[in-house]
User: Fold 4-aminobutyrate aminotransferase from Nocardioides thalensis.
Amino acid sequence: MTHADTPAVQGGPELAQERRLVTEIPGPRSRELAARKDAAVTRAVGTMLPVYTVAAGGGVVVDVDGNSLIDLGSGIAVTTVGNANPCVSAAVAEQAAAFTHTCFMITPYDGYVRVAEELARLTPGQHEKRSALFNSGAEAVENAVKIARAHTKRQAVVAFDHAYHGRTNLTMALTAKNMPYKHGFGPFAAEVYRAPMSYPFRDAGVDGPAAARRAIDVIEKQVGATNLAAVVIEPIQGEGGFVEPAPGFLPALLDWCRANDVVFIADEVQTGFARTGDMFACDHEGVVPDLIVTAKGIAGGLPLAAVTGRAEIMDAPHVGGLGGTYGGNPIACAAALAVIETIETDGLVDRARAIGKTMLDRLTALQADDPRVGDVRGRGAMVAVELVQAGTTEPDAALTARIAAAAHAQGLVVLTCGTWGNVLRFLPPLTIPDHLLAEAFDLLAQIIKES
Ligand SMILES: *Cc1c(COP(=O)(O)O)cnc(C)c1O
Assistant:
């Protein structure tokens, strides 16, 4: 029960930026910890790559056995500014020394207000905005739905095929995929409906506006605009497979929402904060959502999430109608302010574009001589390949699992995703040095060839 069990190692960008394997993966100390995990932690909480971390930063994760792995996951798009980023760590330490919690609803503090001001400045649109802060992406999505219902006095909510919005009861209902997110966990929240997504790889010949008309037709026929409080959509889907809708899909959907007084909620939990080579993925097509939900990359790993949007919508719930004990915790707010400052002063939006270009170039080259690489897609440092039976659109989850396992064994932290489990996704921290990115994609090319 002491901290002495885990050696104190300095993380951050000072860590040697190298891939270094000194044991098999996972090594003996990690396997010992995994055995303790099995005896103490429910099996329901899985671990994708059970090397136990002692430090991380720049573009690497270092484990208890002394292995140094190349990080292409950022803890699922969270440590965008780099793990243990010195600005973030310093802001956290300073705030922790001042006070750790008061509850913003009891005696408030400036950090929360400053995060809300920054969100108003950075999120799409010049309109008057308000924010509310929460602890997780799922909690924020739930609150966005509450706000939309209070504003419209309607109940129905539409989400899309392949959507992922979280694991709480309402967000499970919004999430599309049964296994592992929903299986056996019903009944789910009522008044949630699903519309077809624009999925260019599986949608040959359906352009963005046509895909939007297809979705709108389902909504009008199966839900009815006058019953609909909100449409919730990820501008690029995350867990669902990095599905980037065809150009024109999001703008057409937004136009329809405006015309029908339906609240357009952009779930930018995964795409937000420089990840896609814009501050927000909605910026790419100039889409201005009514409400935008942020989390993951917002606070460098501290638990923070937000709903930001039009003042008249955000102010619709009654006084005291929103909140929570920890929402907008002062340490998480201090981290978020440091993250935002780092993104801007270090030019990380541009860095995301540069990383994206490298990854897309490498993966497109692979695709040219491997017909199992069905699709290469994504923007900025959020890029994926969809693997299929050669020359078809038939998903190949087994191949994807083999590639991921081989990548893990060779010290690459690579994540999979997709409705069919056949997508490899790449979400490196924006602090990854070029030589590590190059090494990772050299290795991947070889692994894919041999798989
Ligand atoms: C991760 C994610 C969520 C849920 O966030 P949590 O913090 O895990 O609750 C919601 N929406 C999207 C798009 C996500 O990627």
